[in-house]
Amino acid sequence: IKNIKQKTNNTSVKQLSYRQMQTALKNAGFYKGPIDGKLGKQTQKAIVQFQKANGLKADGVIGEKTTAALSQYLK
Length: 75
Prior knowledge:
The protein has helices spanning 18-27, 41-53, 64-71; strands at 5-6, 61-62. By secondary structure, it is mainly alpha-helical. The protein has one domain: PGBD-like superfamily/PGBD (Muramoyl-pentapeptide Carboxypeptidase, domain 1, Orthogonal Bundle), CATH 1.10.101. Strands 1-2 form a two-stranded parallel ribbon.
């Protein structure tokens, strides 16, 4: 799995911390590991699986679309 990168071209899109990403992925049913704020293999795998399941480009890059989709699971 590629290293996960976080990028955005739009400053209005809130970037998520790794803890927030893990929480959102856990809430969405893709991550079962600890919420430790570390970008480990479990988190990377969950991001790619989440992207695939949500019709996003499964490249492991946390861009605007992935951030928006993950944010829905933090509410």
